[in-house]
Design goal:
The structure holds 3 protein chains of 3 kinds. By secondary structure, chain A is mostly helical. Chain A contains 10 helices and no strands. The chains are: A mainly alpha, B alpha/beta, C alpha/beta. Chains in contact: A-B, A-C, B-C.
């Protein structure tokens, strides 16, 4: 499963990286081509109402969406790792405070918060700002799950051994616990990224994204706003949705594949 | 000169229960335990008991891995929980451990070399990489392992016996003065136990390293130890030289234990003899607060056993037994008396 | 009492072969096992880690899962080959005819369900049409058979001691009156005193329901006191089998001899005997006899010819060692 997922993501990335060589990304801007064209040989994905070549849009937009997703996922996980490890290993009051905060925040519906934040930002939202907005919610779940994992590892005999070797708390966290959780963290990263991508596209589809960037989500937004469905411009809404699906499925498969690796019981006997 | 390591009237209480509708319980895992390890002469003492006796808790307390509820654990006179920096490092170097599970002590992420290189690095035992390598090779060879067959491998690639011997090699590297071995052979195959026990005894007889050997298996303890302490639910039932304790046990629990051990001589009536016992065994949590903890199972129980806890009665120059049966013939030792005093007192003519 | 071998054979394995597929090759966990268990006897299967004793138990119940599989052989229960039964038929055999008390059973009791309810669930799962009162009566009877008061049925597992929990597991195992009880290290976590009581209970239980007990473990002392016949396994093969008197007083296979002499006792102090050499690798086994690299009595042909179980002087005593085969002088002593 891991293999197929990686392959799919690899294909998408290839598309995004090599695309600009073949396709002029300026064509992703409005008024680059005759509008409302169905797919032709000149414009294989057709064009939208504003004259954007949709192939160019995808080539330009997929990397943008991925960038937001990875940034948000990575930042979210980074914070989650820090808080989760400290909370889980140190315990005591520190743990109570961190855990209480996370548990309380988790009860607030994420999408509502995101929408509120996104709609309060009046000026032009940039891609990076978008990523931070999504990241602000992406850290909570990882904190909780990593903390649980650390709790199970904390009482292992090799941790006691490390203490007997005179290792300090930070050394134990970094040298003994962290490497054992790497596969778990990688799976978590894939999960965080796919969540972030979905959250981003969700926000954008509601119109709360970077208005002038041809991201996948914004394209969906424009297609909805301009009633592409009713008007029979199937290429305008179907193509970004297909890309969304491919992206999401590949990330989920990677997450599941890594999860399998991280869980030794599911592996074939060594 | 202060003792190398001392447990002074340590008591450890665990709080449990309260879940699933049960009442919150308080389990006294260790009660007023006092024992020390001499700094000058090496000693080999076994602390024996079944699960729930408190023996593992004592190991953890002595290693400073858990704080006592009351009482102190002292390293060269200083409370181990107050040690920092150089003092802490000296304690960690002098007092080492060998644990029961030869797999769990290894961090599965690293090769087995990690368990040997880490202490060398942390305690600055070597000046160079070559020196470190020499130390490791020497330690491995002392425990009967071949470096080319063990180094560079992951824990799951070696057998339990090999892994346990590597942990002994590790303890050797540090040249500790005391090793606390918690069930070091119980998870090792029967055929390898003798080799490992032999290595441990060798460390004592050849290198002068003191041992506190913790186990539930009296027969393996008998092979290596000089002195024996029998624990039952957190209190000391009996203590003394191993030969005397095994051949002439005094405490009813010890007598019951020894007669229940199945021997490899078939047809001894082990299955037929009715096990004389008052009640089915109880868990430590349900023991009554007052009186002797063993009263519930004791065949020689007297009414006062249930209301008063017997003191440790010294029945001989080197033996003591916590049972009212020996009140007449023995001298009550004061509360909190260091057990080790019994073992190190030279035998005086009667 | 009739000698075990005078009784009827209950279970017989013929050439049982259980293998595990690993990344590094195929491991023969159970190697051409020919084992016979007689009605009403107590048999012990002894071996160290990797000897295949637990795998054998799982094999008898057809509970071997990927990446392991039963590669060859027959398991005859009352003459019927279990390996040829359908999954449904085998499911019915489990618990009603062959029951197991697995290692650590007492830790797998459901902590939030009362003992009596758990036992009833097990009974009803296997015999759907038993009424509740009938089941409760049976539970009371089972608890009494293992020496527990009927009030135990109302308790939760955490209210019981280790020994009591293990008795509950034994009671559950025999709830359908099986012919064969498999016990995998049933007393390893218990006090020696409690161990003795439990084994005594197991013995009286066995006599009462007329079942055969197969005890698997590595505590030779326990075996010597509890079982009537014993089989020694090494590297998946049965290397010696006989009555406890024969095995402990006159062990013939070099491995058995070394194993027995390595057992510490209160008679010897300060002498440390163990078995030389490294443990066996199931993935890369030596040619010929599996034990030959470590054997003090090894001969040239041991490296090329694998021995089979041959009968020794006494009827019931067999050993798989070339020393005792026709033509070798050791067999005539």
């Amino acid at each position: 499963m891991l293999g197929v997922g990686l392959l799919m993501l690899g294909a998408i990335l290839l598309f995004a990286l090599i695309g600009p060589v073949f396709v002029d990304t300026d064509m992703a801007q409005p008024l680059s081509a005759p509008p409302r064209l169905a797919p032709t040989s000149a414009h294989p994905f057709g064009t939208d109402d504003a004259g954007r070549d949709l192939l160019a849009v995808m080539v330009a937009g997929v990397p943008l969406t991925l960038r937001i997703g990875f940034l948000a996922g990575a930042v979210g996980l980074g914070i989650g790792v820090l808080l989760g490890f400290v909370s889980g290993y140190v315990g005591g009051k520190v743990d109570t405070v961190i855990r209480g905060t996370v548990d309380t925040l988790l009860t607030v519906p994420g999408l509502v918060v995101l929408i509120s934040i996104a709609s309060t930002i009046r000026e032009e939202i940039s891609v990076n700002l978008m990523a931070l907005v999504v990241a602000s919610l992406a850290w909570m779940w990882p904190t909780r799950t990593i903390r649980s994992q650390v709790l199970t590892l904390r009482e292992r005999a090799y941790v006691h051994m490390a203490k007997l070797n005179g290792l300090s708390t930070m050394e134990i966290i970094w040298k003994e616990l962290f490497p054992n959780l790497l596969p778990y963290l990688a799976a978590n990263l894939a999960g965080a990224v796919s969540w972030a991508v979905l959250a981003t596209i969700g926000l954008e589809a509601l119109g709360l994204g970077p208005q002038n960037e041809p991201t996948v989500g914004m394209t969906i937004y424009w297609s909805i706003t301009f009633s592409a469905l009713i008007r029979g411009m199937w290429w305008w809404w179907s193509i970004p949705i297909i890309f969304l699906a491919l992206l999401f499925v590949s990330l989920i498969m990677i997450a599941a594949g890594l999860d399998e690796l991280a869980n030794p019981k599911q592996r074939k006997a060594a | 000169m202060p003792a190398l390591l001392e447990a002074r009237r340590v008591r450890k209480v665990f709080h449990g229960g309260g879940a699933f509708g049960g009442a919150a319980t308080q389990t006294v895992a260790v009660d007023d335990f006092s024992m020390s390890v001499c700094a000058e002469t090496p000693s080999f003492v076994t602390v024996a008991g079944e699960s729930g006796s408190g023996k593992t808790t004592i190991a953890r307390l002595l290693l400073g891995l858990a704080p006592p509820t009351s009482g102190q654990v002292l390293y060269q006179g200083r409370d181990v929980h107050t040690l920092k920096g150089d003092g802490l490092r000296a304690y960690r170097k002098d007092v080492q451990a060998i644990f029961q599970d030869p797999f769990e002590v290894y961090n599965p992420f690293y090769k087995v070399d990690h368990i040997l290189t880490t202490p060398i690095r942390k305690f600055k035992l070597a000046d160079s990489k070559e020196h470190a390598r020499d130390l490791i090779v020497e330690a491995l060879e002392t425990v009967g392992l071949r470096p080319d067959e063990t180094l560079g491998r992951y824990p799951h690639q070696l057998s339990g016996g090999q892994r346990q011997r590597i942990t002994i090699a590790r303890a050797l590297l540090l040249k500790p003065r005391l090793i606390i071995a918690d069930e070091p052979v119980s998870m090792v195959d029967a055929s390898l136990r003798a080799t490992i026990l032999e290595s441990l005894h060798g460390l004592f007889s050849k290198f002068g390293i003191s041992f506190i050997y913790i186990t539930h298996d009296l027969t393996t303890a008998y092979q290596v130890t000089d002195s024996l302490v029998i624990l039952y639910h957190g209190f000391v039932a009996e203590a003394g030289p191993v030969e005397e304790l095994i051949k002439q046990p005094q405490h009813p629990y010890t007598r019951q234990l020894i007669s229940s051990i199945p021997v490899t001589e078939p047809g001894r009536g082990w299955l037929d003899e009715k096990v004389a016992q008052n009640e089915a065994e109880a868990s430590a949590a349900t023991d009554s607060e007052l009186g002797c903890r063993y009263a519930g199972r004791c065949v020689d129980v007297m009414p006062r056993c249930r209301s008063t806890m017997p003191a440790l009665y010294q029945t001989d120059s080197r033996r003591a037994c916590a049972c009212f049966l020996h009140e007449e013939s023995g001298v009550a030792l004061p509360q909190g008396e260091d057990l080790t005093r019994l073992f190190t007192t030279p035998t005086t003519p009667a | 009492m009739t000698a075990p071998s005078m009784r009827r054979a209950l279970l017989e394995t013929r050439g049982l072969e259980i293998q595990f597929d690993t990344r590094r090759g195929i491991a023969r966990a159970v190697n051409e096992l020919d084992l016979t268990l007689y009605e009403g006897e107590r048999f012990g299967l002894v071996g160290e880690s990797g000897s295949g004793k637990t795998t054998t138990l799982l094999g008898l119940l057809r509970l071997i899962e990927e990446p392991g599989r039963i590669a060859a052989g027959e398991i005859l229960l009352d003459g019927v080959d279990l390996l040829k039964l359908s999954d449904e038929a085998m499911r019915r055999v489990r618990l009603s005819r062959i029951a197991m008390v697995p290692q650590g059973a007492m830790n797998s009791l459901n902590p939030v369900i009362r003992i009596g309810d758990q036992m009833r669930l097990t009974i009803l799962e296997h015999e759907r049409d038993v009424k509740r009162d009938e089941a409760d009566d049976r539970i009371r009877e089972l608890l009494e058979m293992v020496g527990l008061l009927p009030t135990v049925a109302r308790l939760y597992p955490h209210e019981l001691s280790g020994g009591m929990k293990q008795r509950v597991c034994i009671a559950t195992a025999i709830c359908l009156g099986p012919q064969l009880i498999l016990a995998d290290e049933p007393t390893s976590a218990l006090d020696v005193v409690v161990q003795r009581q439990i084994m005594q209970t197991l013995r009286s239980l066995q006599e009462r329901i007329k079942a055969t007990v197969l005890l698997v473990g590595h505590d030779m002392g326990l075996m010597a006191q509890f079982v009537e016949r014993i089989g020694i396994m090494y590297g998946g093969k049965l290397v010696e089998v006989g009555t406890v008197e024969e095995i402990f007083r006159n062990p013939r296979h070099p491995y058995t001899q070394l194993l027995i002499s390595s057992i510490p006792s209160f008679e010897t102090r300060g002498t440390f005997k163990s078995i030389p050499g490294a443990g066996l690798s199931l993935l890369n086994p030596p040619g010929g006899c599996l034990f030959h690299p470590r054997c003090p009595d090894v001969m040239d042909e041991c490296a090329t010819r694998a021995p089979t179980l041959v009968q020794l002087q006494e009827d019931s005593h067999r050993a798989a060692c070339l020393l005792y085969e026709e033509g070798n002088h050791a067999g005539t002593t």
